[in-house]
Specification:
nine-stranded mixed beta sheet; Rossmann fold
Length: 717
């Protein structure tokens, strides 16, 4: 019987096939981090203090949205493709291009009776997917605003209405994160261009523009009002809350089952509360509307955040310009909410009334292209799409999903910053130092390196192996399960492999890698980084929650690997007898990226193997990624790419085995060699060449085998 087969049969001896007691650990930890961040944020108590804080907030918000440098304001190429005549207003059906490759369908409601140029309102539709601008709530709101004298624009948001593609991807694109963009940034930019269109119309007074929307539309209104000073009155509905309570409310919902990245603006919780961002709108009028029975944005959080918003308006002597309206209703934008919005917009954009609700008038709605199923109102009828409200032929515009991926590729073309091949080793040392100094901006801050705490749960001897099951503390609140395996016939100062697998340490027990390492008389420490194996959590939920903080989830996992190296370096009764100058790190899949980062940052790792891992972030720019969300680090390509980190390992050992692209398809030899050209040049510069560096690919379906990987390690260690 081989060691490998006995490992598969005797996993139960190690106890890693049992129910985990760590099921809630990862999400509990991230929520606690979020709570601590909120508690540390400043709360100015004077007008001067708030104005200084507001000035300091604008730059990080624009950075989080990827709008530090606005995209080029290209020609909108707006077309009026039809009109609908109504008693109190005319609807112009529009198509325009907010950025090249993105086509937007929209309705412009023009009042029949108004003093032109008239005030205008941008209505941001929420996540009412199929109908979007034609959703009954949107139609009622826009029609009544037009009746009240407002030019009103509503457009189909990305992945909605006539731009409806695949919701599972169009609202959850990961690839823009790599170039410092995010899903909400795409939407905010489209709203900025929508206002550009409004102010281009002679019927619109550019000094009197308001904005409203519910749910995702409230989200859009919230950020748009903070970054575009042309919005003079803001009415976000069913969104404003505390970031923490919004995150907690999504617990185990996984942000719409892992497909929605609109709310999770990168790093926003590290420097602000929602009240701070609402405060940036002050002293301009702002009415926050909330639903008492909203399970997504709990009313308790609304009241909590509104106290701070009201305080900020008070510091600016503008208490009369802010209002909270709560409605006895569930999440949505119902009649009572809309009537409150009408009164507020009329008060501040037309200088009429006192802001009290204005009764709504009934209008005949444009027929829905996707009417509710009469047998199940939660479902939509399917079949031919037809409605007089459609702008594109057959109601189908160019899908935004491919355009988002193409846009990301275009931005990535000139990234990361240009690098010059050094001519001397000393020049590279300086360049390497600068490179590694940029890593914390991507991985986030590290916790304090506390004295490690290990707990040994099992030690056994079987089939020529000594095996330990242990748990070590990576940081307070995070325990990392591990197994240590070594040949029982102990050899003093044995080399050791630290094994990290995207699918958990048990994968190494069944795929032949650990068997092969042990057969070579090399010890193994296999770990489950947080979110994997025994400490599994939804990668999307954990990643997108942590994305909003100052500690990206991938960075937390890298920390777990570094703490595992601490464990090997300092040793215990068994691991203390290994040769800590011969620590190798083998990572498979996403684990290959973790191994790469750990080795670049920690010179105690003598050899690194990336197995079935990507070799460039640019290869991850695909519409439907095969790698988990945690691989997509915000803004990373503005700092470096994976080949830069590979070069930072030189002259230590590095093996890249069976590299893959973002869809987990094997890279061709030519593509792999091109991606890895830079580290190859650095290894040559340091006069190590192929002796320390190897790109290993196999043309067979089997790919690189564990025997080849371990054989390479044996040869060089």
């Amino acid at each position: 019987m081989t060691i490998h087969s006995s490992l598969k049969e005797d996993i139960s001896l190690l106890g890693i096939d049992r129910d985990s007691r760590y099921r809630e650990m990862v999400l509990d930890f991230i929520e606690e981090q979020a709570r601590q961040l909120a508690a540390r944020l400043p709360r100015p108590e004077t007008k001067e203090g708030w104005l200084q804080r507001a000035a300091n907030l604008r730059a990080p918000i624009l950075h989080s949205l990827g709008l530090t440098r606005f995209p080029e304001r290209t020609a909108l190429k707006a077309q009026v493709v039809g009109k609908l005549e109504c008693s109190d207003y005319v609807i112009e059906k529009l198509i325009y291009e907010p950025r090249p490759g993105f086509m937007v369908s929209a309705h412009l409601y023009l009042p029949r009776r108004a003093d032109f140029p008239a005030p205008a309102v941008l209505y941001s539709a929420g996540h009412w997917m199929e109908n979007c601008k034609l959703d009954p709530n949107a139609q009622f709101c826009c029609a009544n605003l037009a009746r009240l004298g407002f030019v009103t624009l509503v457009y189909d948001m990305i992945g909605q209405g006539e731009r409806l593609g695949d919701y599972a991807f169009d609202h959850g694109h990961l690839e823009p994160l790599l170039v410092g963009q995010c899903q909400e940034a795409l939407m905010v930019w489209e709203s900025i261009r929508a206002v550009d269109y409004l102010v281009s119309r002679p019927e619109v007074d550019p000094e009197r523009i308001g904005m409203t929307g519910s749910s995702g539309g409230g989200l859009n209104t919230f950020y748009m009002s903070a970054v575009d000073e042309r919005i003079q009155v803001s009415v976000p509905v069913c969104y404003v809350n505390t970031f923490f309570m919004m995150m907690a409310a999504e617990r185990d919902r996984n942000w719409e089952d892992g497909v929605d990245l609109c709310n999770q603006v990168p790093q926003v919780m590290a420097y602000s509360q929602m009240s701070d961002i609402c405060g940036l709108i002050a002293p301009k009028p702002q009415c926050i509307i909330a639903a008492i029975h909203d399970t997504l944005f709990p009313i308790e959080g609304v009241h909590q955040v509104y106290q701070d918003i009201e305080r900020i308006y008070g510091l600016l002597d503008a208490q009369d310009r802010v209002r909270l309206v709560t409605v006895d209703a569930p999440h949505g934008y119902d009649r009572e909410m809309r009537q409150a919005a009408y009164g507020w917009l009329v008060r501040w954009l037309k200088n009429e009334g006192n802001g009290s609700p204005i009764p709504e008038r009934e209008y005949e709605l444009i027929p829905l292209p996707y009417p509710p199923n009469p047998h199940n109102p939660r479902q939509r009828e399917v079949g031919p799409v037809s409605s007089p409200g459609l702008c594109f032929p057959e109601g189908r515009g160019p899908l935004p999903g491919p355009a988002i991926t193409t846009l990301t590729k275009q931005i990535a073309t000139s990234l990361p910053p240009a690098r010059d091949l050094p001519t001397q080793a000393d020049d590279w040392a300086s360049q390497r130092t600068k490179l590694l100094a940029r890593v914390p901006a991507v991985l986030g801050r590290w916790p304090d390196r506390r004295e490690k705490r290990n707990r040994l749960y099992n030690r056994t001897l079987f089939n020529g192996l000594i095996a330990e099951r242990l748990v070590f503390e990576s940081e307070p609140g995070i325990d990392i399960p591990a197994i240590f395996l070594a040949p029982a016939q102990w050899r003093t100062h044995m080399p050791v492999v630290l094994y990290i697998d995207e699918w958990g340490k048990s994968a190494g027990l069944t795929n032949g890698l650990i068997e092969t390492v042990l057969a070579a008389r090399i010890a193994v420490l296999a770990i489950d980084v947080r979110g994997v194996g025994e400490v599994a959590a939804s990668d999307f939920e954990a990643t997108s929650n942590a994305l909003m903080t100052d500690r990206p989830f991938f960075g937390q996992q890298v920390w777990d690997v570094l703490r595992a190296v601490d464990n090997l370096w300092r040793g215990n009764s068994v691991t203390g007898r290994i040769d800590n100058t011969r620590i190798s790190c083998i990572g498979r899949g996403l684990g290959g990226l973790l191994a790469l980062y750990a080795a670049a940052l920690d010179e105690r790792i003598a050899a690194t193997v990336m197995w079935q891992a990507p070799v460039s972030y640019k290869s991850l720019i695909v519409e439907r990624p095969g790698f988990p969300a945690s691989a997509y680090l915000f803004d990373v390509l503005n700092h470096f790419d994976l080949p830069d980190l590979m070069s930072a390992i030189a002259p230590r050992l590095l093996l890249i085995a069976d590299p893959v692209d973002g869809e987990r398809q094997a890279l061709s030899r030519q593509a792999a060699a091109e991606f890895c050209k830079w580290p190859s040049q650095i290894y040559t510069l340091l006069e190590t060449g192929s002796s320390k560096w190897k790109l290993l690919l196999e043309d067979s379906n089997q790919g690189v085998t564990p025997n080849e990987i371990v054989g390479w390690l044996q040869k060089h260690l």
